[in-house]
Specification:
The complex is a heterodimer. Chain A is of the alpha/beta class. Chain A folds into 3 domains: 124 residues, Nitrogenase molybdenum iron protein domain (Rossmann fold, 3-Layer(aba) Sandwich), CATH 3.40.50.1980; 101 residues, Rossmann fold; 150 residues, 3-Layer(aba) Sandwich (Rossmann fold), CATH 3.40.50. In chain A, helix 11 crosses helix 13. Chain A is globular and about 65 Å long. By secondary structure, chain B is of the alpha/beta class. In chain B, helix 10 links the parallel strand 6 and strand 7. Chain B is built from 21 helices and 13 strands. The chains are: A alpha/beta, B alpha/beta. At the A-B interface, strand 1, helix 1, helix 2, helix 3 and helix 4 of A face helix 3, strand 3, helix 5, helix 6 and helix 7 of B.
Chain lengths: 452, 517
Amino acid sequence: MNNEINSTPEFESSPDTEYPPLEGPRFTCALGSAIGTVLAIDRAIPILHAGSGCGFANLFGYQYGAGIQGVGYVGGCATPSCNLSQDEVVFGGESRLKEQIENTFEIIDGDLYVVLNGCVPGLIGDDVQAVVKDVKSKFDYPLIHADTSGFKGDSYVGYEETLLAIVDQLLPEKATKKKGLVNIFGVVPFQNIFWKGDLQEIKRILTKLGLEVNIIFGDPEGLKTVERIPEAEYNLVFSPWVGRKVVEKLEEKYNTPYLTFTHLPIGGQDTTAFIESVVEKLDVSAETLDRVIQEESRDFYDDVDNASDFMIFAFPTLPFAVVGDTTYALGHTRFLANELGFIPSLVIITDNPPLEVRKTIEEKLADVDSPFKPKVVYQQDSYEIKQLVDKEQIAVLLASSKEKHYALEKGLLYLSISFPAFDRVILRKTYTGYKGGTSFIEDLCALCAGPF
Amino acid sequence: MSKKLNKDKKWRINLDEPAPLPKEQLWNSTKTFYGKASEILEKSRKHELQQDQDRIFRQNAMCPNFTSVLRLMTIRDGITISHAPVGCAGYLNAQPQLFQGIPKELGRPELDFHWLTSNLRENDVIFGGSEKLGKTIKLADERYKPRSIFVLASCVSGIIGDDLEGLVREIQPDTKATIVPIHCEGTRSRIWQSGYDSVWHGVLKYLVREPKKTQEDLVNIPASFSLTWIDRQELTRLLAKLGLRPNFVPELATTEQLEILAEAAVTAPVCGSLGNYLGYGLEQEFDVPFFNYPPPFGLHNTESWLRKIAEFTGKENEVEKLIEEERAAIEPKLEALRKEFKGDEATVLDWGGQARGLGLPLLTHELGLDVKGIGMYEYDEVIPEAVEELIEKVGDFDVVVADMQPYELEQIFIKHKPDVYTTCPFTGGHFKRAHTAGVRHHSFRGDPTPNSPQYGYIGLITYGNFLLRAHKHHTLNKTLGTHVRQPYKEKIYRQHSPFVKKEEKGKITSLAKEEGK
C-alpha cells in the first residue's frame, strides 16, 4: 500500500493549451454541458444552432450518462434545434436560426430562451450574436446567446459560458443586495451526476441556518432564481476552479464576494466544517449554528450508529480508490477515510484542474485522518485509469460505470459516484451533506448487505 | 474488388467514392410526409416525395455520426475512434453496460469494448486534426491490438477538410488493425439513417473480402439495435431448424463476421433502412442474393421472411414443415390473445423506424387491433410493394413521416386519440401526455428478459401479451398524463398541421376542423 502522497501531476501536458487524444473521456463538449445547464433551469428553453444530432448525442452520452436522467420538460428530442445540414454549411445558417427562434417563441412555452451554438456555426462563421440581437428587437421574450462550439472546451466550459452569457446579457447593471442571500455555483448539472440532490441538500442545510439560498438549477422558480443572482450577499463555489470565472465576473459587476470550497462536503465532519466556515462570513447567530449542528449531527451519527453493526462486519478497514471529478473525489475520499474507517489508497482526479489549484486539492487529501495517505493522480484517459486501478491493492472502488465491470470481475465492492453512471437512475439522490452521508452509507452497505 | 455493374439494378452503389450518397439522393428518402398510406405509395412511385427544407420549426433528432456510433460501438475486436470534439460520441461510454446484463448461460461472449477520441479543440480546427487522429489510431493499435479500427468522421473533421483516406493510406502499412474510415459527418444528410449507409460503405470498401467459398448455410442478418438478445435467440432457433446459421452484423459482431459477409448464401435484413445498403452492395459486388422486405414481425411477415431465406438456400420443403410446426405450437396462445382483443375497439398508433412502421401494423392486425396511424422516422422509395401489400391487408391508414419531431407527433396524437400507443421513450416525451397506453416500441440489444422479444413466433406472442397488458392497465401513463407539464403553448397546440411549413404558416386548417368534416 502506498503511504505517501504523490503530488507530482502525472497528467503532464499543460492543461490550458494542449489537448491530447483521449480514451473514453468522462465529460462532454461545451455545447452538451450548456444544454444540460439550460435544461436545469426550470422553464428555460435551449435553442440549438447546431447539427441535428448534437442534442441527441448529448441526451444519450451526457444526460443518460448522469444516471439516465430523462428528457424532462423540453430535453431530448423536444429541444428546439436548427438541425443544420449541408445547405447551411454552404449558404450559412443565419436565416434558419432567425426562423427557428421566432417559431420557438410561438410554439414552446418558456420563461427564458437561450441560443446555444454548436461547432458548425463556429466553423462557417455565422454571426449568431447579430441574429439574436435582431430577433430580440422584435419580440418581448428574454433571449440570450452563449457561444458553445463543441471544440471550445469541455463540460466545465459549457457551464461557465452559459452562466457568463446570463450575467452579461440578462442581468441588470445594478442590483440591491439582500442580506443573507447566497448563490451556489460550481455544481455542474449532469457532469455532477447528483447535481439536483446535492444542491437541494446544501439549500436545506443553509436554509436551516437562516440563510436564503439561491441554487438556480433544479429550483422550481426558474427565471426568478436567475434574476436574483445579483442580489446575493455572497457567492459560494463548490469547486476550486469550476465556476470561478462566473463568480469573478459577479464580483466585478456587482461587487459580490465569493467563498470557494474545494468540494461538496459529505457526512458529519466535512459538513459541519463547511457550515462553520460559512458562518464566519455570514451573519448567523452562534445559537442557531449550535442548534443546527447538534440536530443534524445527532441524526447523522444515529444513522452511523445503526449502520455500524453491519459496517464493522462488512468493511474491516478496507483500502479503497476513488475515480472522479475533484469535488466527488475529495468528498468521498475524506468521508470514507475520516469517518468510516476505510483506508485511502488511490485518488484519480478526472477533471483536469488547472495547475494552480492542484496544491489546494492535494492538501485536502494529505490531511486525511490516517497515517495512510492516498496516491493522487490527475488523469483523464480511461486506459491509464484502468492501469492505475489495476496496480492498486484495493477492496472498494468508487468510480464511474466505465470501471464497474472490471471492478466486479476483480471482486471489488463497486459503486458509481462519478460521471458517467449508466448503471443507475438518479433523480434527487445525493451523497452531499448530512443526509447524503446517510444515503451513501445505505448504498455502500447495499452492495454486500445480508444476514450474518 | 470485382465490379459487376448490374444494369437492371435500380440502386447503384459506388465503392470507388470515399462515401455513399446521402439517403435523400440515393433512395429518395424523406422525413416529411403527412397523409394516407395510399398517398405516400403513389407519391413515392411518382418520385414526388418532398424533402424537409420547408419545415420552419424543428426539434433535434439524430445525425449520421450518432447513428454510426450506435452501430459500431459493439464490434467485439474493433475499436471505435471518434474524430471529433468529445461531445459527439460520449454515448460510447455506455459500452460496458450494453450487454453485461445477459447471463453467461444465455451465451454472452467475453466483452471488452473501448473507444478513443482525437479530442478536437480550437487549435485543431485551425491547423487540422489529421496528425492528432494519426496519434489516436496509433494509440488504439498499440493498446489493444484490435482487428479493426473504425474512424468516425464528424461535422468538424468534414468542414475543416481532414483527408481521412490520405491519412489511412499513409499509416495503414504501420498499423496492425485494418483502419476503416466512416464518412458519417453530421451535416452529410438530413436523414440520420444515412449513417447506416456510411457504416456499410466503409465495411464493404475496407473489410469485406473476396469470398474463397460460399458458406451455403450462412445468412447475413443486418440487425438493428432494437433486436434484443432473445430476438437473436429466436431467429437463430428458427434458422437452425432449417440447418442455417445467422451472421448478425454489425451489433456485437467480430471483425471476421464482417470480412466474410460475401461468403453468405443470402442477406436477410430485419430493417430495410438499416440493411439496404449492405444488401445491395453485397449483391452488386459479390452476387450475394438479397431481399429487403419484410422484417420478421408478426405471423405473415415472419413466414415470408423465412420462405425468402429458404428460397435462396434451397430449403423450400423444410421451411413449410417448420412453419407448420411453429404455427401449431403458438396457435392456442395466439387464439387466446385474439379472444382477449376481440370486441374491443382498440386502436393503435405506432411510431418508430421504417421496419416497425411497416411491420407492426400487420402484427397488430393479426392480433385483432386496428392501426389508425403509423409514424416513421424516415421513408424511402425502395419498397413500394411493401406498402401496397400492407394496405391490402389492413386497409388504408394515416402515415406521418417525421424525424422524431415530438411537436408534430402531438398533433397526430390529438387527432387519433389511440388506445395503445407504441414509442421510443427518448423521442421527446410526448408519450407522457398521452393519457393512454403508451408503451415502449421495442427493447434494446442487451435485453435478456422474457418480455423483450418481438420477432419471430415467440416475439408475436410476447409482444401481443405486452400490448394486451398495456391496453388493459396503464396507470403510469395516467400518472404522467395527469401530472407532467407540457412545453407547447396551448393556443398553438391545435392550430397547425403536423408540419409547420413556410407556405402554410398562419392559414392552416385546424385539426379540429379536419376532424369535423
